[in-house]
């Protein structure tokens, strides 16, 4: 058996920030989850629908692993990433680091993990691995998934080998904190401005503030779009509130990040951004409730109201990002 010592197996809300928190705390660096999310410029929006999807997807963050790369750049971390098509090499990459006393981040498909009660394929899931024995892997996942958990090695191998949307080739990674790490206070403004620029200047209409406008146009049609609205719409709402988002499609996390920042930096634009994202978070929770109600009742007026709320959200978030971009 190999178990890395001194692991703080604190599960938080979102899988990627949970994983990064474990890796950083093992080196003596402890940031709040909202601070990790914000410094990684994690907030975004995507509305995605295609003929290959059974139902549209709403996302509230940047694509998997981009947050990790952003955070490494902001804090000057040495990010070591290994990818391979070989399951044998993939295991060797991880086992060597664990044997050397280092926890490892993994990107995998959560469908194959023993402890996941909801069996849905998601290839962008991340966990921190801190040990193994002959049969099981020792992991840290989000608090809703149990925090410190174990899963069978065979299932872990399948999860890492899975191919499909958002998957990676047996990706594993570590971060190393420099001897003189950057002060988070000094990196807050650049991280916020990066996030604001991306949100306000999306390359396609599905992303950022343009994506929210598109969602406002499309969601009122969701009862017709779904073959099983009684399942699809409540599931979409649950994903917005509960699937590792921290609630309100990650807006709660960004609201709390901005709140933490206002205690470090005295700036009117920052306070404006925090006020507007407090408003936006409440509106996103309202949108999720309306979508769920539409699926349960079949009443299209709930979706019409959700569309109106989304148009207001586009306005509110655009105003917030304009203010934050002026920092």
Automatic annotation (TrEMBL):
<dbReference type="Pfam" id="PF16169">
    <property type="entry name" value="DUF4872"/>
</dbReference>
<feature type="domain" description="Butirosin biosynthesis protein H N-terminal">
    <location>
        <begin position="14"/>
        <end position="142"/>
    </location>
</feature>
<feature type="domain" description="DUF4872">
    <location>
        <begin position="155"/>
        <end position="324"/>
    </location>
</feature>
<dbReference type="Pfam" id="PF14399">
    <property type="entry name" value="BtrH_N"/>
</dbReference>
<protein>
    <submittedName>
        <fullName>BtrH N-terminal domain-containing protein</fullName>
    </submittedName>
</protein>
<dbReference type="InterPro" id="IPR026935">
    <property type="entry name" value="BtrH_N"/>
</dbReference>
<dbReference type="InterPro" id="IPR032369">
    <property type="entry name" value="DUF4872"/>
</dbReference>
């Amino acid at each position: 058996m190999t178990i890395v010592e001194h692991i703080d197996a604190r599960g938080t809300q979102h899988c990627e920030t949970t994983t990064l928190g474990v890796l950083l705390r093992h080196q003596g660096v402890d940031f709040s989850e909202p601070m990790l999310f914000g410094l990684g410029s994690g907030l975004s929006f995507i509305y995605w629908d295609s003929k290959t999807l059974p139902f549209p997807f709403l996302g509230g963050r940047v694509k998997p692993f981009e947050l990790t790369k952003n955070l490494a750049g902001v804090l000057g971390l040495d990010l070591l990433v290994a990818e391979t098509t070989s399951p044998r090499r993939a295991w060797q990459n991880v086992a060597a680091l664990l044997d050397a006393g280092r926890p490892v981040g993994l990107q995998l498909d959560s469908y194959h993990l023993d402890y996941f009660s909801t069996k849905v394929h998601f290839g962008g899931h991340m966990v921190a691995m801190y040990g193994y024995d002959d049969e099981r892997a020792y992991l840290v996942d989000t608090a809703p998934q149990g925090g410190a958990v174990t899963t069978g090695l065979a299932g872990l191998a399948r999860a890492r080998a899975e191919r499909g949307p958002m998957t990676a080739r047996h990706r594993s990674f570590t971060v190393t904190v420099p001897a003189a790490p950057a002060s988070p206070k000094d990196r807050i403004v650049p991280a916020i401005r990066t996030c604001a620029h991306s949100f306000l200047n999306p390359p396609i209409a599905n992303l950022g503030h343009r994506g929210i406008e598109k969602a406002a146009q499309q969601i009122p049609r969701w009862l017709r779009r779904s073959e099983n609205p009684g399942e699809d719409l409540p599931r979409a709402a649950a994903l917005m509130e509960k699937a590792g988002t921290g609630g309100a499609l990650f807006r709660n996390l960004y609201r709390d990040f901005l709140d933490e920042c206002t205690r470090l930096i005295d700036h009117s634009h920052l306070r404006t951004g925090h006020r507007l994202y407090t408003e936006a978070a409440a509106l996103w929770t309202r949108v999720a409730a309306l979508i769920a109600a539409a699926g349960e009742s079949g009443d299209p007026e709930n979706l019409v109201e959700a569309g109106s709320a989304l148009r207001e959200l586009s306005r509110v978030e655009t105003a917030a990002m304009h203010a934050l971009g002026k920092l």
